[in-house]
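Supplementary Text 2. Reproducibility record for the structural model of the 997-residue chain.

All settings were left at their defaults, and a single model was retained for analysis rather than an ensemble. We include the record here because the model underlies the residue-level annotations in Supplementary Table 4.
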Amino acid sequence: MAKRNVHFLFLMLSLLGIHLQEINLCNGALNSSCNPVERSALVEFKQGLEDATNRLSSWMGQDCCRWEGVACSNRTGHVIKLDLRNPHPFSDVDYLPYNEWSLGGELNPSLLGLKYLKYLDLSMNYFGGADIPKFMGSFYHLRYLNLSRAGLGGLLPHQFGNLSNLQYLDLYNDLEPYFGAQVREFRIDDAIWISGLSSLRQLNMENVNLQNVSNWLRALNTLPSIEEIHLSSCGIEHVQLSLPHVNFTSLALLDLSYNSIGSSIPTWLFNISGLQYLDLSHNNFTGPIPSLFGNLVSLSDLNLAENYYIKGGIPISLRNLCKLQSLKLWGINISMDLSELNVIFSGCIKISLEILELPDAGLTGQLPEWLGELKRLRVLVLSHNRISGSIPAWLGQLVSLEVLYLNNNQLNGTIPKSVGCLSELVHLGLTSNFLVGEMSEAHFANLTKLKYLSLALNSLALKFERNWLPPFHLEYIVMGSCILGPDFPGWLQKQENMTFLMMANVSIVDDMPDWFWSLISGAHYVDISSNQISGRLPNLVHLNQVSKLDISSNNFSGLLPYFPQGLYVLDVHDNSFSGPILPEIIMGMPNLIFLSLSKNNLIGTIPSSLCHLQGMTTLDLSDNLLSGKLPDCWNSSSELNVLDFSINNISGGIPKSICSPPSLYSLNLNNNNLSGELPLSLKYCQQLVILDVEYNELRGEIPRWMGGSLAFLMTLKLRSNKLVGNIPPNLSLLRYLQVLDLAENEFSGTIPRSFGNFNGMKVVRNTTELPTDLFASTYTQIMPFSTKGNIREYEDLSSLNIIDLSNNNLIGRIPTELMNLSKLFSLDLSGNHLTGEIPENISALQQLESLDLSRNNLSGGIPSSMANMSSLEFLNLSYNNLSGRIPIGGQLLTFSDPLVYIGNLYLCGFPVNRSCKDSETTQTPNRIDDKNENEMIWLYTSFALGFLTGFWIIWGALLLKKNWKICYFRFIDNTYDKVYVWIMLKLPRMSNILLYL
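Retained model, structure tokens:
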């Protein structure tokens, strides 16, 4: 017994000694500095970094374990964690802190001195697009590696496969430019190294290029512990439909969204029994939604959105997914009546479902009552369908609802007041329906959490008491085309958190209250256009957050104020601003990309400071009172797409630098006093799509180089200048040309037969080869054209095909080749000296709506085929030499006004007041010519007979009557004597006058 006690005492003393030793060791580790080798490695690593904000200022002294971002083991003292993540995440709204706090420079191999490193985070920095160093695969103890958004790129090193202890790997690479610096993509040539990551649990390779990698799925299937796989936006086009053995026993999350997978949904997915989150959205999956989804009983989130090739209904098996909280089926052609979905949503799915998104799914019918049974529903999105009927009152029973989007449907009637019972509602979107009636305080009584309100494009009127205090604080307001006026809505004054305001065309007829400009000081987007708001603008430099300001089409007046420095879009067109455009105002907005000051009363010259806005894409100063010359300071670093100086009093020539911006595609200089010739510098506008210089004083000829150099030109307007010479045939090389307006000049010669080769007027427009799609631009291109006898404005230029050569000195025939232009909309050749006949095949222009051939010398008949021109709405053939019967029937019956044919003396039939003889036709111009020739022969014959008859009557009488003959010759002699005497008496006097002169 004593011996046993001795042994027990010895054991206790030994354990006590070991414990004391561990305490001493730990104290030693805690009290000592970090390993000198590791400290030196960190110092050397820092020396290779660029640290603009001195984030690593604490990296001084001997104890590196106390440095910013460094952590050491409490037991060994070795550095086990290095966290240099940027403390300011990237933000689209304000990227400056992210930019300033980003580390850069090189990743020095000295890091290899940290042999016991378990955690490494270099994310949210910018290392200049360098490759990931291969030495990263040598940190064998590493468990966490985050290189996301670190400004790295290139081929992922195969050495990563050595990191067998790695549990977390984040290689997400945002391909958006980092504050102006382009980022390289990550790519993989062979995924076999992934198999070496045997401990991996979470893998994020979003935006890593896997397009040409076929073994990525097999490699991932070897990882026994993998729980999360993020492969969004990896360029994956193919995926195996089946696997021999599914090894994803621990997989809970799989994200394959934003790829290009074009097969049916793989069957191996339905063997992953523990799958909780599945995102297959934004792909090209085909076929129906498999009923096997009902096997994934652990599924809580299913996203199949934006797979437009998936067709068919929702399988009934989904009713058994009792854990499903989120179902997103955006853009899937379900094509079902909402009432048919009752079978699915009456299952146990209704107990768990919190998010239901079925927009753009072809749904029809009215909002069904089974929706009211989804008591846990937080998000309901049914936008962009064909849902009709009214909004039911029972919608107010969904008391958990936070998001309700019913935009772009066919809902009608009034909005029930029960909507005001949705006390948890944060987002309410009802835009683009047929809702009517008034909304009052009762509709918003309990919406204390509402932040997003979108009611635009309905016939709603918001009528509140003048002193009403709304219970909500909105951040996002979209009210376009509702009725908020005529007074400026006072309830807005309490919305201090507003970041987005769209109140265009809301019937406000009032002065702008002073408090409004303070209210929007935190907003990013402000649009109050198309009202009748008046007043003068104060200086707005305090609106630091505003990036878009649209106050166009109102009654603002006075001088232009100073605007916020951060503006990207400024639109003040169609107001009554006056005074000059001060250079200081322009230079105060260095970030502008869109500026419209058109339709005001601005005077003075155009400031050259506009040339210095390098990011500007659209500049519109049209329809003002500007004078002087155009600035000649444009440069090749400019990003200008649109220049519009039309309808001013600008003089001088077109400046040589006007084509320096390499991306200029629309140049509008019409309705000014520009002089000189079309300059050679226009030859370098090689991306030009629209050139409009009509109504100026330009002289000279159309340059021969225009057809070959301006390859993308679609609209060429030279109307009403003083241009001369022949029209160059090589204009037909402009294969995209759709509008050619050369009217009211002094062109001579014939119409080039090559004009029948305008490809843009023969085929449907294809802009894939154009440098830019003008019709997708944010700039609204509204242009006037002379068609159908009037000046008409057109906004959609995509299908407009016009040739206008009127009021020149053109001669010759109408080329039959013009009839090849099958897509021609308007043809005007009036006011020239054209001869010959109207081409017989003119009916080939089946899409022609306007035809004007008046005031020429055209002859012959009107082709009967014109009756088949079913699109023709305007016709003018007046003041020519047309003859014969006007064809009857078809489209020509719609032209009952005789003025269409006035001035053609030999036309007959309806609607002119000249009846046709039986022999007169319209289709035999040769017979008409024969008739005219016969009439001339009879005319000359009658002249001859009359002359012979008169001659023999006089001389026959003189020969037969002697007394008459004596009297006649005596009269001749007496007359001769009198004339002779008179001349002899006057001749001396006339000689004296001539001598005096």
